Amino acid sequence: MSKTDEYIDQAERVLLHTYNRFPVVFDHGKGVCLYDIEGREYLDFCAGIAVFALGYGNEEYNNALKNQIDKLIHTSNLFYSVPATEAAKRLTQAAGMDRVFFTNSGAEAIEGAIKSARKYAFSKDGSTDHEIIAMNGSFHGRTMGALSVTGNSKYREPFYPMIGNIKYADYNDYESVEALVNDKTCAVIMETIQGEGGIRPADPSFIKKVRELCDRKDILLILDEIQCGMGRSGSMFAYQGYGVMPDIVTVAKAVGCGVPVGAFMMKQKVADSSLKPGDHGTTYGGNPLVTAAVCEVLRQFEDRKIIDNVKDVGEYMYKKLEEVRAGYDFITDHRGMGLIQGLEFDTSRAEPSKICARAVKNGLIIITAGSSVIRFIPPLTITKDDVDRMIGILKASL
Ligand SMILES: *Cc1c(COP(=O)(O)O)cnc(C)c1O
Fold first, then answer.
1. How many domains are contained in the chain?
2. Ligand 1 in contact with 138 (CB < 6 A)?
3. Residue 49, in any domain of the structure
4. Among candidate residues 244, 277, 303, the one where a domain is terminated
5. Do 46 and 82 lie in a common domain?
6. Beta bridge pairs of residue 337
């Protein structure tokens, strides 16, 4: 038995089997590559599912964390801390928001956004039957609230009942949203670019019209930027590229580049009439260790001009993936922008999960988004040479 098989065998005896994992045991990373325990190299176009945006073995990031570990890891939210204050200032400024609450994950950021919207509506009229409009094909996380606004019944059904008063509209179909609005509607929630659902960007006219509808009816627009935010789309937040501002925004994944941290942010108007002392809390959320990571991530985004690289290399990757699409007639679509792109397959002729498995064997980490799409969400620090290498291995795996 190889060392890898031994570890996999041990893991499968004790880990709850909620993932069908690739048969790889990673040991360390450097730049945009990961290395397994047997020394094999993998070019990483998954980045820990859009988390590790700044590359592996990032010395300044590692040192920022080590320094904070030696100083103070945790104190609770009953006190103030310098890293949390600094991270809050930097993150709200980057997002154009006024207030932030730090969480431990994306799903928890969604929970907070839902609670904020319900409390905002409750403060207005005192009623407790407000509705939220979510999108078909969306993904917002696995906790009960986040699952309730996830527009994929396969994920929801075994866990019914969900939280109440959620309705589903069709993404990029404005009329379907408008048709669901009534006096009880308190929020519309959607991803600016649907990730898990197959890398589907919002149509500019759709998101603008939804914004106008929300303004007319004092409905809160919640944009989930957990996957598409933090520079991945070519703007710091994808909504900035659309010229549309949400009332509440959720972030996670790349915001801490590997430490468990997320956040929901809001405009002052929402903060004024939503969560107050006693309404919400978290023991770990935004502790000094994870917020030191957020500070360092945001510093590097600025100093290393990460977004310029996303635009430049993202455009190059778009061109290269267009060439791939043109060369295989079982590839039916290519979507996305910046460094969040996807190829859609005719699944009767090619199975994305099998292609990904073959690519991993060939030294390229790519993953699916839904059952018919392969997504490309590399570290934001990749070069055009990395794209060329990726394209080579991808073709060999098709
Ligand atoms: C990953 C993801 C989530 C859930 O985040 P977790 O940290 O896994 O809870 C929510 N929304 C979107 C768009 C995501 O991609």
1. 2
2. no
3. yes
4. 303
5. no
6. 340
Q: Does residue 66 belong to any structural domain of this protein?
A: no
Give the residue numbers spanning the domain of 177.
72-303
Per-residue pLDDT of the chain (398 residues; tens, 9 = 90+): 899 999 999 999 999 999 999 999 999 999 999 999 999 999 999 999 999 999 999 999 999 999 999 999 999 999 999 999 999 999 999 999 999 999 999 999 999 999 999 999 999 999 999 999 999 999 999 999 999 999 999 999 999 999 999 999 999 999 999 999 999 999 999 999 999 999 999 999 999 999 999 999 999 999 999 999 999 999 999 999 999 999 999 999 999 999 999 999 999 999 999 999 999 999 999 999 999 999 999 999 999 999 999 999 999 999 999 999 999 999 999 999 999 999 999 999 999 999 999 999 999 999 999 999 999 999 999 999 999 999 999 999 99
Counting other chains too, the contacts that 83-89 makes at CB distance below 8 Å and 24 or more residues apart are 83/288, 83/289, 83/291, 83/292, 83/294, 83/295, 84/286, 84/287, 84/288, 84/291, 86/291, 86/295, 87/286, 87/291, 87/292, 87/294, 87/295, 87/298, 88/286, 88/291
- 100 in the same domain as 226: yes
Ligand 1 contact, 224 CB (< 6 A)? yes
Give me ligand 1 centre to Cα 76, in Å.
24
Domain boundary among 287, 303, 319: 303
**CB of residue 226 inside a 6 A radius of ligand 1:** yes
Instruction: Identify whether residues 186 and 276 lie together within a single domain.
Output: yes
Ligand 1 near 105 CB (within 6 A): yes
165 CA to centre of ligand 1 in angstroms: 22
Same domain for 254 and 317, yes or no, is no
Of ligand 1's atoms, which has the minimum distance to the CA of residue 252? 7
- CB 107 less than 6 A from any atom of ligand 1: yes
What is the value of pTM for the model shown?
0.98
Q: Which residue, judged by its Cα, is nearest atom 10 of ligand 1? A: 140
- Scanning the structure block, which residue is given the tokens 């922008």? 337
Q: Are residues 118 and 25 in the same domain?
A: no
CATH number assigned to the domain comprising residue 39 = 3.90.1150.10
Is 286 within a domain?
Answer: yes
* Residue in the block written with tokens 């007639």: 329
Q: By alpha-carbon position, which residue is closest to atom 7 of ligand 1? A: 106
Residue 251 CB less than 6 A away from ligand 1: no
Residue 287 in contact with ligand 1 by CB distance below 6 A = no
Q: Is the separation of the CB atoms in 250 and 226 below 8 Å?
A: yes
